[in-house]
């Protein structure tokens, strides 16, 4: 087991760890990144000095480390043991340090006029030459603050922002992405506001860790526009980005692992972060993910131009219902199956028992029989008594039989739940429905009385209509719409006979229920209603 410590990082101490690239069990090769450190002006990957398996990680993101701080314990590969002694020595050897001056020798600031043309050059790079420009953060006309990043340089193991030694306006930019620069290479010409420059300008004032190796001389390549990264997903800690970009990503809460880099070697640039955020916002405004509905906002209309109007706010229930119905309508793939039940016998039975019901103070409407028939359907077709689990992969089968019943109230639509219908008789159900719908109309329902349904029923039979397409009351997977029963001529035994037909509309969630299952379910409900002996069993 070998201890790996932080190598020479120049004059820095207490440098923050911003990423940890390994965990216990990670197999690492020599030069693989273990952790990334970040100072105000640079990030540096600390490479593994040996090959083996990480057994313990001794640091965490946010820790402050200095040269010699213990990072990880690595169990070295047997075959590497022999060469390791040399390798270990080499890897912990002090690394070259890039000296980055915060300014490039402006001449006599005290005597200078308020605005002065200045050429900013690459400061002391600690001997490293031909370092690649991977990002140019300014353009002609930019009014920049003192110390803001002008360009970013990158070598194999470190990237560094070159800050502006002045506040002022950029007159010309003398380098482009892919250029190779060394100490003294002119970067920009600026109209500098000299009063903002620090008194200590001429002296080098910052050191940043230099590349572990000489910078790679990659061919120059202009950045291409960043494709937005819907399809790009990687570990943010592996993302290839400089300190300024990482800082910006942190500020905006952008996961770098999701951003496609358009820079050299797919490096993520600040412009990529801006493009990512812009596209994400546009997508949101258009109504969702990549496959979003892109619904245009309805135009605002001034109705008063057509005649007299009165504006009244929607009440709380209507606002709440509107949100739920809209969500359910757009998120559930609805299909509606229609059928009719011959309720001649049912009506006869109902009329025979009406007086008894009246005496008990309950209303024995067709809905009570329909509730019983639906519960029979739920028992025969358990997939209707189910809800999609939040993970989208499982179906939760319910062993209880509670029905949500849509009730029209002066304040809007509410859906109280009548429970354990399978264990209750017709009169008992009628009594409960009467009580709970009265409570609904008085606005006295508690939230608990409106949750936990197996399925729902929306009955407009007392009002009229031949059919409608009810919206599923999620998380249910189906809802039965009931329209007004009518006497119709039905062809039976070689003749048309007048029969009372009850129209039924079954909307179902097609993700959970197939069309054939829906048709069978509705046929089953119809059969129950047509032969009420079955209902009473
Ligand atoms: N066909 C013919 N007549 C019907 C019928 C049908 N399908 N359903 C009910 N009726 C009759 C009843 O028998 C009753 O007549 P009688 O008094 O002569 O017996 C009359 O219509 C009124 O019934 P009701 O509406 O008071 O009772 P119900 O049990 O049918 O319904 C309830 C109760 C609470 C569901 C209902 O009052 C209600 O609020 N319905 C509206 C639901 C709604 O708004 N749905 C839309 C949701 S989507 O916007």
Automatic annotation (TrEMBL):
One of its GO terms (biological process) is pyruvate decarboxylation to acetyl-CoA. InterPro entries: 2-oxoA_DH_lipoyl-BS (IPR003016), 2-oxoacid_DH_actylTfrase (IPR001078), 2-oxoacid_DH_E2_comp (IPR050743), AcTrfase_Pyrv_DH_cplx (IPR006256), Biotin_lipoyl (IPR000089), CAT-like_dom_sf (IPR023213), E3-bd_dom_sf (IPR036625), PSBD (IPR004167). The keyword Acyltransferase applies. Its cofactor is (R)-lipoate. Forms a 24-polypeptide structural core with octahedral symmetry. Residues 1-75, 119-191 form the Lipoyl-binding domain. The lineage of its organism: Bacteria, Pseudomonadati, Pseudomonadota, Gammaproteobacteria, Candidatus Berkiellales. One of its GO terms (cellular component) is pyruvate dehydrogenase complex. This is Acetyltransferase component of pyruvate dehydrogenase complex. It catalyses: N(6)-[(R)-dihydrolipoyl]-L-lysyl-[protein] + acetyl-CoA = N(6)-[(R)-S(8)-acetyldihydrolipoyl]-L-lysyl-[protein] + CoA.
């Amino acid at each position: 087991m070998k201890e790996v410590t932080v190598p020479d990082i120049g004059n820095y101490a207490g440098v923050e760890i911003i990423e940890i690239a390994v965990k216990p069990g990670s197999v690492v090769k020599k030069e693989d990144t273990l952790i990334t450190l970040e100072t105000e002006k640079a990030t540096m990957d600390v490479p593994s000095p040996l090959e083996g398996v990480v057994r313990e990680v001794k640091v965490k993101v946010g820790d402050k480390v200095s040269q010699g701080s213990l990072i990880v314990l690595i169990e070295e590969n047997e075959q590497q043991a022999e060469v390791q002694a040399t390798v270990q020595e080499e890897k912990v050897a002090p690394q070259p340090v890039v000296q980055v001056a915060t300014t490039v020798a402006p001449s006599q600031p005290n005597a200078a006029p308020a605005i002065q043309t200045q050429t900013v050059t690459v400061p002391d790079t600690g001997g490293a030459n031909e370092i690649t420009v991977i990002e140019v953060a300014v353009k002609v006309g930019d009014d920049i603050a003192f110390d803001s990043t002008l360009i970013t340089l990158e070598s194999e193991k470190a990237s560094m922002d070159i800050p502006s030694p002045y506040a002022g306006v950029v007159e010309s930019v003398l380098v482009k992405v892919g250029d190779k620069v060394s100490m003294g290479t002119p970067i920009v010409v600026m109209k500098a506001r000299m009063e903002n420059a620090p008194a200590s300008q001429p002296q080098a004032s910052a050191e940043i860790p230099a590349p572990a190796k000489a910078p790679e001389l990659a061919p120059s390549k202009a950045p291409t526009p960043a494709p937005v990264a819907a399809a790009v997903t990687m570990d943010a800690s592996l993302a290839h980005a400089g300190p300024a970009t990482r800082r910006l990503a942190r500020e905006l809460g952008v996961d770098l692992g999701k951003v496609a880099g358009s820079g050299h070697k797919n490096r993520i640039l600040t412009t990529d972060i801006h493009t990512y955020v812009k596209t994400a916002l546009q997508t949101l405004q258009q109504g969702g993910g990549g496959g979003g509905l892109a619904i245009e906002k309805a135009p605002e209309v001034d109705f008063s131009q057509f005649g007299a109007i009165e504006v009244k706010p929607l009440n709380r229930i209507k606002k709440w219902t509107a949100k739920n119905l809209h969500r359910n309508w757009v998120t559930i793939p609805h299909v509606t199956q229609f059928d009719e039940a011959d309720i001649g016998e049912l009506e006869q039975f109902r009329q025979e028992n009406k007086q008894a019901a009246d005496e008990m103070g309950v209303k024995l409407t067709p809905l009570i029989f329909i509730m019983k028939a639906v519960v029979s359907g739920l028992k025969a077709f358990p997939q209707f008594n189910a809800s999609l689990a939040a993970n989208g992969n499982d179906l939760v089968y319910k062993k209880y039989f509670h029905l949500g019943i849509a009730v029209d109230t002066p304040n809007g639509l509410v859906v109280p739940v009548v429970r354990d219908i399978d264990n209750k008789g017709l009169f008992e159900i009628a009594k409960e429905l009467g009580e709970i719908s009265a409570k609904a109309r008085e606005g006295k329902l508690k939230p608990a009385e409106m949750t936990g349904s197996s399925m729902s029923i929306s009955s407009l039979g007392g009002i009229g209509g031949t059919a409608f397409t009810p919206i599923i009351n999620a998380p249910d997977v189906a809802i039965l719409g009931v329209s007004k029963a009518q006497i119709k001529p039905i062809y039976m035994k070689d003749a048309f006979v007048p029969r009372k037909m009850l129209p039924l509309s079954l909307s179902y969630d097609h993700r959970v229920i197939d069309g054939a299952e829906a048709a069978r379910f509705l046929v089953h409900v119809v059969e129950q209603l047509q032969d009420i002996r079955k209902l009473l069993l």
